[in-house]
Amino acid sequence: MILPIYCLPVAGLLIGILISLMGSGGGIFYIAILTGLFSIPMNQAVSVSLATIIPTTFAASISHFKAGNVNINVGLVLSAGGIIGVIAGSFLLGLLSLNVLKIVFGLFMLFMAGQMIFKNFRSKKSSNKGQKILVIEDKTVNTVKKKKIFTFKNFKGLSFGFFGGIMSGLLGVSGTPPILAGLYNMKLSSVQVVGTSVMVLFFIALSGVITHTAFGHLDWYLVALLAVGTITGAILGPILGKKIDEKKLEKFYTPFFIVFIFLMGISMFF
Fold first, then answer.
1. pLDDT band for position 208 (50/70/90)?
2. Per residue, what are the HEC states of the chain?
3. Helix 246-267 crosses helix 98-126 at what angle (to 10 degrees)?
């Protein structure tokens, strides 16, 4: 069944809430809805989805920043990598076949999902150690490794952001899985992962629209219809999130992100 265009704001509202609560850029949802429910051509849907992500993630970033859920320093590092990745992706787009790229990113996302499972298991195992041991290690390990962890942490952030940017430049999506995995890898809390991810996705989407504008055409009427709903949903998301217990969110987010990234990786092979 093909839905009329005037139903786009309602679809945008639902996606906006989902984006704000779960840190997803929404590109996959936009493309699926635009092509499946509204019968919009794929190339046009990609351009519209990237353009609509900009106001959505911007509004969500402001809301999460006011709520104290954004790690600015980490977000800027991943954003820098994402911008570089978008530029690189625009050049690689004409050199590599889409099927090869999808397989490469599918393998990469499966690797990230496995890494997140391993880190989650290791953190639970280490939490069973005694408090005295943890206090002693806090005084010694931090002083010895502080500088090393800082530089390597930035390198990891740039790397994950770079892959997220390439995914945006090549596939027309926001690069959510690498960004989520990168933020979790850098040991941010689940709430900070959500808030910081929408900030990073904003800069990636903005860069993606700039690079993709040279290759396609944007239907700004469709963008406006979606944006009305998604901005409203992005503002309502953090408000709804405050009414949910943070411990329950922590228990939900980690398995959700792992399953989400794993399924995204599997989908790249089809």
1. confident
2. CCCCHHHHHHHHHHHHHHHHHHCCCCHHHHHHHHHHCCCCCHHHHHHHHHHHHHHHHHHHHHHHHHCCCCCHHHHHHHHHHHHHHHHHHHHHCCCCCHHHHHHHHHHHHHHHHHHHHHHHHHHHHHCCCCHHHHHHHHHHHHHHHHHHHHHHHHHHHHHHHHHHHHHHHHHCCCCHHHHHHHHHHCCCCHHHHHHHHHHHHHHHHHHHHHHHHCCCCCCHHHHHHHHHHHHHHHHHHHHHHHCCCHHHHHHHHHHHHHHHHHHHHHHCCC
3. 150
Q: Give the structural domain span for 45.
A: 5-267
Number of structural domains found in the chain: 1
Instruction: For 92-130, write each residue's pLDDT tens digit.
Output: 766 777 677 667 767 877 877 787 787 777 766 665 554
Can you give the pTM of this predicted structure?
0.63
